[in-house]
Amino acid sequence: MNRKKLQKQAEALNRSARHFRRPEVECLIRLFHTLVPEAGERRGAAGLDRNAFRSVLHLTFGMTDDMIMDRVFRAFDKDNDSCVSVKEWVEGLSIFLRGTLEEKMKYCFEVYDLNGDGYISREEMFHMLKNSLLKQPTEEDPDEGIKDLVEITLKKMDYDHDGKLSYADFEKAVRDENLLLEAFGPCLPDIKSSMAFEMQAFQETHDL
Amino acid sequence: MGAGVRPALHPLCGETALILVGAMGVTLTRAAQWTSAGSGPGTLEITPLNESLLNEIIKFTEGFHYRHPQEAAFVFREPLEWKTRLDYSVFESGYEISGTTVQSEDKDKDGQPLLLLTASTIRVRSFGELSRLLSVATEKKLKEAQACLEANRDPIVKILGPGYGTVEGEDMSMLRLLEKVKKDDDPETEIKMKISLLLQQLDMQLLNSSLKHISREVRLTPTSVKNEVDLLKHFSGKGEDTVLESLEYTSDYEFSNGCRAPPWRQVHGEICYLIVKPHDTNPLFITCSTAGVFLNGGREKEKDDIEYERKSDIYKDLVTFLRERSPKFLENMAKQEYTFFEEPVHEKQQHLEIVDTEDSGQSQKFYDCSEKNVFEKMKSPPVKGKPIDKKLEPSLKWKDTGLAGSQDAAKKDIKEEKEVRPISHELKKKASIISSGSVKAQSATKRKVSEKSEEASESSSESEEDEEQPERHQEGNTDLPSEYWQIQKLVKYLKGGNQTATVIALCSMRDFNLAQETCQLAIRDVGGLEVLINLLDTEDVKCKIGSLKILKEISQNSQIRRTIADLGGLQIMVKILDSPDKDLKCLAAETIANVAKFKRARRTVRQHGGITRLVGLLDCVSMGLANPTPSQTKDIEIARCGALALWSCSKSTKNKEAIRKAGGIPLLAQLLKSPHVSMLTPVVGTLQECASEPSYRLAIKTERMIENLVKNLSSENQELQMHCASAIFKCAEDEETRDLVRQHGGLQPLATLLSNSENKELLAAVTGAIWKCAISRENVTKFREYKVIETLVGLLTDQPEEVLVNVVGALGECCQEPINRAIIRKCAGIPPLVNLLTGTNQALLVNVTKAVGSCAAEPENMMIIDRLDGVRLLWSLLKNPHPDVQASAAWAICPCIENAKDAGEMVRSFVGGLELIVNLLKSEHKEVLASVCAAITNIAKDEENLAVITDHGVVPLLSRLANTNNDKLRRHLAEAISRCCMWGSNRIAFGETKAVAPLVHYLKSDDTAVHRATAQALYQLSEDPNNCITMHENGVVKLLLGMVGSTDEILQEAAAGCIANIRRLALATEKAKYG
């Protein structure tokens, strides 16, 4: 990719991804192209497919939960074409790494709203929390703990008592207690891996 | 064979011992009173019981070879061996003496002597020899018998062989012996049998007599001791006619059983300890025990530790003991006999109980009471080594234990104690299981004790409220609140959940009211603290934050704090301070601030590098910015949390030092410029806490912190105002600091704050600051402008002592100026001041006497003081035990005498007053001596009084003080001597008591006031020719010649006068010689 094109693209992206500075955007674009070898050259629209993206999440950000990684991919892939484009990559990372609380809440809610109906339902919660407790072999109903946990969560976050979390509920609960931002599973990088990522991604460009 | 003088006395004694121990296994090991304290081989105490037992045994042995000649020849299986005090020279006929070795002429069949004495060790192998030995020993019988018994605890075995040893339980030896006799015809066996029977007979006899003895013996009970002490106190005090000067318990705390001895001494039967000061001997340290009254080893000055070992005979009660010890007591008792004995007699009888009837029941009681508390009791052994409480004040812990109830548990038998031990071990185990099951935090009590001993070095300027909080237990499981079960469930999820579930559980837990003790303890009791602290050690930031948020809340509870510290929570939190996450840092620091409210926690923080890290948090660059970014705001918040934690930590002296070394002072100075109360409170709190250290006081001055402290005196927040005032209070001992306070306009806000008399803590701090600031004259002038003196006088009544001390201190400083003395009089301040002279608080008395003394400098004030009988009150304070009060009272007496009308008459009217003050010249404290000398100078202005004090021996007492380097004492001493020269032959007496030569050397001092006083004294002394000679010999002339040229006219005149006297004497001598 030639330099001029890169700069132009970076300039364009810099408008939508406000949390990065221009050189940083350039770095991310370059990084994107190393992750999508050749592909970008041949098929213009193509980008990171689900598997490639998941391996980035896993290797770079230490995520392990398959379902959550899937959801993160969906959240990045705004146009639902099963492929994260350069634009989606940079914009996604902007929130992922440096988003404001507002942006992160939206992002997380999107991740947790599995069916995209605008609510996180009991079933969705159950689904996301089902592996969160060690199974007690002694208990008769192994899911009882999970169900209880769901109820606890609803009690805590369901302000309008309709049995499901709207975005308003979610927002209010998170503003009240920031720890609940990732209430249903880690979908944001922790401070260590994001710092490591930024350092690596941006450091390299400085060296260039 | 020696031309030796007297027969030796060993044999009988040895036998006695044998019999006692062997046959009388019961009598001697049980009934005989072996010493209880001290280790190693037991020794027999000389008690009436033991003595009678020994005598009984001696009698038996002495007569043995007449009554049973055959048995007396029987050779022991093994010799009885002991260290004798008999000299070989006492052995005569029947013994072979060569050098220091003595052998009996009687030999066994192998030719071995039956008695052998080498060096001081004696071996005896037959009753015959024992009998002879006893008769040789004559009056040393008893000692020898005792020594033998002590050395041979089971003599039967030695005499007859191991088969006859004392066996607990049924004694089968007789039967065995009988069988043996049947089987063989060996005559020896028969003799053995006879001896054994004889010994057993003696045993019975001894048992009987000791029973008789014991039943005759009366034992003291706590009530009888108390009655006796109360009664004696009634007749004690100063004055000629009392029986004792004073009589005090060593401990104010009385257990519910009436004993005052610590529980581990109560088991030895000890009831309480007394310090008795008779009129005619040194103070006596006395133990009252159930067995009687005796002298103990006293209390060593430094250690405050009583040496419990018995040092005297045992007397049946206190009166008997004191009659023996103090003739004066006896004499004065006789005078009081009527009142003294009339009533108490039958009362006493009621309380004297016969002991053995209760004995068995008592031990049972002891068990019952101690059982549930043995756990605590087990923790107290360190106390045994070195009692911790200064006054031997038992800790609260003991108050709670039923141990106190075991009054009659006071037992002679050490066995008793041993029997209790194993049980307590079991209980201990049980208890630890319970606490690890975390149903009850009994461990808190355990820690308390270990802390005390560990932390002797750490001091705290603030009282530690939570140090002694009683443990609150949840009563049973019946009424557990519903929160308990919910919290238990959440803790289960914390344990078994991944980070997502953990975060949800943590957030949900925060919805409980964590400020409520039920919830706090529920978390602890279901094992939540362990989990929360474990979470701190994970990698997950969210879990750590969630956990800290909970810990921060519940660590408001002192029991939780201790558990957190026990679980190693502090170490982890200190590590978290290094985290890059700012929220985490804040929370960790805040939680440390809560937990570090007790010594051990503070030390843990320091030892794990916490202080350095916390000081690091204070470093925030963005402090002064007008519009800080969110991230900068966060930094400021971190600094605030750091300051909070340091504030808690700064209560330990070593931490203060650590903060300073970590460079905390300039950072605190920086933060002190903050406009926010939330920041200022912990910062000023830390500073005022640390201001107890000189290094901080200096730094507060040099880092320009006074300005900000003064500024914040005008804050809206009373807590902040209080800390600022208290920092100034502590720093204003320094003159420059006082000036700085004035220059920064701090005096007015202080004056204004005086009007807020509702908040007593604030008032105490403010009055303290005013007191110290008033040491500077310019400040006093300002205070007068602000009408501070009037306000202070208004605060002389109805205030707590902390406030009064400072108010009176401030008035005392203000009174240094005449105009203020008048102000105090005009606003009726003198009566309340004089009234305070009757108080007991030592600090307050020092200040009140100073203030009254300063007021007395004004004749008009003096009239009021005199009318209120203030001088008598001052005079009676000379009797106060504390030297500071004595000195301060004596100083205050000086202006009173100077300014009172008819001072001489007034002084004479105090009965015993002059003797009292003269006797204070025996004090060991320089300040007391100087003040008393000054007072004597004033008293001696009245000739009649001078005559009286001369009679009381003032001259030798003053002379005795002459060899001193203390210029203050020198000056007042010289003045006193100079005054006292005015009566009779005192001049000559001073010369005879060798006061003159040291005085001459005072002239070499650097202090001109000393020169003046000394020259005057020398002038007076030089009226006596012998003194002139002494002075001349000590080179006085040269020294005085220099002083004749002084600008001080009084000095000049005195020096010249003295030289003139010496010169005249020289001329006269010459004239006599040659003329």
Automatic annotation (TrEMBL), chain A:
CDD domains: EFh. Keywords: Calcium, Metal-binding, Repeat. SUPFAM superfamilies: EF-hand. It comes from the Eukaryota. GO terms for molecular function: calcium ion binding. The keyword Transmembrane does not apply. Residues 64-99, 100-135, 145-180 form the EF-hand domain. This is EF-hand calcium-binding domain-containing protein 1. It comes from Alligator mississippiensis. The gene is EFCAB1.
From TrEMBL, chain B:
This is Armadillo repeat-containing protein 4. Residues 386-400, 409-422 have a biased composition (Basic and acidic residues). The gene is ARMC4. InterPro entries: ARM-like (IPR011989), ARM-type_fold (IPR016024), Armadillo (IPR000225). PANTHER family: ARMADILLO REPEAT-CONTAINING PROTEIN 4 ARMC4, OUTER DYNEIN ARM-DOCKING COMPLEX SUBUNIT 2. It holds the Pfam family Arm. It comes from the Eukaryota. The lineage of its organism: Eukaryota, Metazoa, Chordata, Craniata, Vertebrata. It comes from Alligator mississippiensis. PROSITE patterns: ARM_REPEAT. ARM repeats lie at residues 568-610, 912-954. Residues 378-422, 442-480 are annotated as: Disordered.
